[in-house]
Automatic annotation (TrEMBL):
Residues the record lists as 2-(S-cysteinyl)pyruvic acid O-phosphothioketal modifications: 117
Species for this entry: Campylobacter ureolyticus
Listed InterPro entries: Enolpyruvate_Tfrase_dom, Enolpyruvate_Tfrase_sf, MurA_subfamily, RNA3'P_cycl/enolpyr_Trfase_a/b, UDP_GlcNAc_COvinyl_MurA
Chief place where the protein resides: cytoplasm
Record flagged with keyword Cell division: yes
Sorted UniProt keywords: Cell cycle, Cell division, Cell shape, Cell wall biogenesis/degradation, Cytoplasm, Peptidoglycan synthesis, Pyruvate, Transferase
Role: Cell wall formation. Adds enolpyruvyl to UDP-N-acetylglucosamine.
Protein localization: Cytoplasm
Protein name: UDP-N-acetylglucosamine 1-carboxyvinyltransferase
Enzyme Commission no: 2.5.1.7
Highest taxon above the source species: Bacteria
């Protein structure tokens, strides 16, 4: 086991390059199942979750070849199994993204019920109900989703999601691409990662309209496989926001590059509320120190609102702000597990159901334990200003979604080291 050791109190400066978005890359990797050609995906982040999904495809029989650390060639014509087994799926919830493509292509599949971050129930019921509307027969048997399509393939349908689901939207988009007839998705997710998936399909000849809105219409190919063009993964807006939080809590000037400012609207707006200003160019954002870090109020919601995946990092910044901040977590019922660890660092946080009230004060170093991916980055951010040396344990959570976090922070001037547990 490894941990990160952080000496607090160091100002940051310089420029950091943002990696490709993990949450955009995962559905694109799953999309390769629908390709009749070799699919090349570039700007892949070198993180554990990506490797997990690639391993899952290999276990199904796909052939993969890394052309460099951030570019892979995938051929799924050799897939000889449609069973995604528990030993891999349990590691990551996003593994469920193979369900729609496998069912659409092969007419049957078995996918283990997923694992991943323990931040709420996050059931896959919406995925399954949508597939049933497309004619699939679904059973839950021995911990697996067992799905069978009608004899002539899935059929187009009008599907209204009861609540917004990102992976659910992505799963059904991919299933609909090979369906018979036209599928209409109402109350679809419109995150940039969903848009990127839709654009990849459109570039491959699939008729799809409403991209970027909450109503999508997809005309299926009647099981004809796709000639998918090479894809470059969009920048990671959550990684970008995380480094901006590192700059904000230390009140430093840094530049993030190879980012997409248009994807960061709600995040940048909240920083402006807290007193920060920005210099924005095409793919670069420079955050400038604030005269005073103000408290703020945050409500997490679906895109284009404030992302739940930035809630923990902003809570860390709020711990160093002047005054009282309020964070209302509307999307997940159990996403305040980092609070107990921030309290160990001297934070003043009070919880009431889905609301956290944070009174800004100085933090002190402590041994803390990561509980999920974004919580782990929040603890690192807090450690940047805590007096003394903080140790963040269980950083395997961090490695699921951040590429070289400690190296990038070190390049900005942070004193942070990865070490092995005794």
């Amino acid at each position: 086991m490894e941990y990160l050791e952080i000496v607090g109190g160091k100002k940051l400066s310089g420029e950091v390059v943002i990696s490709g978005a993990k949450n955009a890359a995962l559905p694109l990797i799953a999309l390769s199942i629908l390709a009749k050609n070799d699919l090349v995906i570039s700007n892949l982040p070198n993180v554990v979750d990506i490797k997990t999904l690639i391993k899952l495809l290999e276990n199904l029989g796909a052939k993969t070849e890394f052309l460099d650390n951030h570019c892979i060639k995938i051929n799924t014509n050799s897939i000889n199994s449609t069973k995604a087994t528990y030993d891999i799926v349990r590691k990551m919830r996003a593994s469920i993204l193979v369900l729609g493509p496998l069912l659409a292509k092969f007419g049957k599949c078995e996918v283990s019920l997923p694992g991943g971050c323990a931040i709420g129930a996050r059931p896959i019921d919406l995925h399954l109900l949508a597939l049933e509307k497309m004619g699939a027969k679904i059973e839950i048997k021995d911990g697996y989703v067992v799905a069978t399509a009608p004899k002539y393939g899935l059929k187009g349908a009008t599907i209204t999601f009861d609540k917004i689901t990102v992976t659910g939207t992505e799963n059904i988009i991919m299933a609909a691409a090979l369906a018979n007839g036209t599928t209409k998705l109402i109350n679809a997710a419109k995150e940039p990662e969903v848009v990127a998936l839709c654009q990849a399909l459109k570039n491959s000849g699939v008729e799809i309209s409403g991209i970027g809105s909450d109503e999508l219409t997809i005309k299926g190919t009647k099981k004809d496989l796709l000639n998918i063009k090479n894809i470059e993964v969009i920048p990671d807006r959550i990684e970008a926001g995380t480094y901006l939080c590192a700059a904000a809590i230390t009140n430093s000037k840094i530049t993030i590059s190879k980012c997409e400012p248009n994807h960061l609207g709600a995040i940048l707006s909240k920083f402006e509320d807290m007193g920060f200003k920005f210099e924005i160019k095409k793919d670069k954002i420079t955050i400038l120190p604030a005269e005073k870090i103000n408290s703020t109020e945050i409500i997490t919601t679906e895109y284009p609102g404030f992302p739940t995946d930035m809630q923990a990092q902003f809570m860390a910044v709020c711990c160093a702000a002047n005054g009282t901040s309020i964070i209302d977590e509307r999307l997940f019922e159990n996403r305040f597990m980092h609070v107990a660890e921030l309290l160990r660092m001297g934070a003043d946080i009070k919880l009431s159901t889905h609301t956290a009230t944070i009174n800004g004060k100085s933090l002190s170093a402590a041994d803390v334990m990561a509980t999920d991916l974004r919580a782990s980055s929040a603890l690192v951010i807090a450690g940047l200003v805590a007096k003394g040396t903080t140790k963040v344990h269980r950083i395997y959570h961090l490695d699921r979604g951040y590429e070289g976090l400690e190296k990038k922070l070190s390049s900005l001037g942070a004193k942070i080291t990865r070490k092995k547990e005794d």
